[in-house]
Structure formats: C-alpha cells, structure tokens
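Kindly go through one protein, given below as sequence and tokens. The question is how this chain folds according to its tokens.

***
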Amino acid sequence: MTDRAFSVVRAGALTTVQDLGRPGHAHLGVPRAGALDEPAHRLANRLAGNPEGAATLEATLTGCALRVRSATTVAVTGAPCPVTVDGAPAPWGAPVHVPAGAVLDAGPATHGLRSYLALAGGIDTEPVLGSRAADLLSGLGPDPLTDGAVLPLGPVHGPAGAADAVPHPGPVAELVLPFLPGPRDDWFSDHGLRTLATGRFRVSPASNRIGLRTEGPPLERALSGELPSEGMPLGALQVPPNGLPVLFLHDHPTTGGYPVIGVVPERHLAPAAQAVPGTPVRFLPAGRAGR
C-alpha cells in the first residue's frame, strides 16, 4: 500500500465510510446508504479540497482517531467535537494540516450524534455498485472501522477550501419532521392521525442508520389486517404493530409490510442524523384533500 493511506488508532463506537450512496438499486433490494447528514458530508469534502461525492468517515457519538502515513489535509464537520493533532488543539469546521505520522483525533460529540471526517483525496476503498458507502442493512461496502485497520486515500484533487464561518444549526432542541400523508394513512383512525399530528414523541435509543425510532403515544389503526410487502422510500414513516412511527433513513429496507402513514421529504432528513435519544419529535402533516 502506498503512503496515501491512514491507519485507525481509535475506531470509536461506530465509524463507517460514507459517500452520497448508491441510489437506483431499490429494485434489486439494495438500499441507498450514504451519509445521513449529507450537508455536513458535502461541507467536509469542500473544506478538504475534494469533490462533494468523495468518501468520508461518519463517526457516531464518540468520534475516532487516525494516523496518516503522509501529510494530509483533514476537515471535521457535522456534530461539533474537540479536534486534536498529536494532542494539540486543532479547529473543527476548517481544513487542518496533519503531518506524516501524526494522529488526528476527533473526540466525542459535544452535541449531536455524527461527525464527518474528510481527508484530502477521499477514502479510496473499492466501490460496490458505484459507491463506497457502508450499508449496515445489506452488508455492502466496507466494514465499519476497527482499531488497526488501514484504509487507502485517493489522489489529491485540489487545494483545501476555506470558510470564514461554517454554517451549523446548533443542537437539535426539537426534531420537526414535515411529512406528506399516505400512501396508507387510511389504515389509521381519525384519532390515530390526530395523535401523529399533536402527540408528544421523542427519539428512541433504539434508533440507528436504518431508522429513527420514536417513543410516545401509539397510533390507533382503523384496519387490523396486514399488507403484502410493498416498496419503501427514503423518509417513509412506517408504523409497526406497537403503533410507534419509525422514520426510515439511508440504510432502510427497500420493501416492508407495515403501513406507511406518510413520507418525510429528503430535504428534511439531515437533522434526524443529529437528534440524540430523548430529543422531542413533532410531526407536521401537509394538507390532504378530503381530510
């Protein structure tokens, strides 16, 4: 392996390689995968001088630490966290020069859940169906990072970017999820629909890259039967038998048999990537004729 590589000193709770995912393969049963907080992923790449689709590291909650084999520019975005180079403080949300052999450590998130580390050249693991993203449901793409693993970097694309200020929404005090009702909202009673629109929900600790699970009042069904499996889009609000909505994220299954009461448009999903367990959740239904 060339010097364009890094070794994993501390893998953290869950650190995966992510890019913009592999859309267009749902008919094969393959989820999209890709960075859950796509704006943070794109920003990290811009700061590191990469194309926005280059592969980054998505570190969950506890961060990770890397030793680079050659001098490399690294940028950390997403959930704010302490950043050090060989123990010396370094900036979050800005290009950081890491000398050959030095360790860059992105520490635990101070708020939010997922930090993104872009290294100049991008992570150059073998693409699968056109993407380097790790998919935790199907197992496609590289495995989650482990201590001692060595990953290659691609050739440097251009100079590091610059930013006077890095946009960041701050802590997610309340996760507000606008959604389009349907296709199976008629499987729920009027009381169930009101509960979704007015109930007090919160993020469950059982959430992951597959779906954001909720805790709160169960939704009352109007129909008691079950559906044959049907397609599940990104952002689907599926309601399992316990009545608690699950928001499908990037590693979601492509089919499912529980009714989908609504769909959250993709542009509203990034905050869900940073909502810690216990965060209040509010669902905002768009208007629907006949309701």
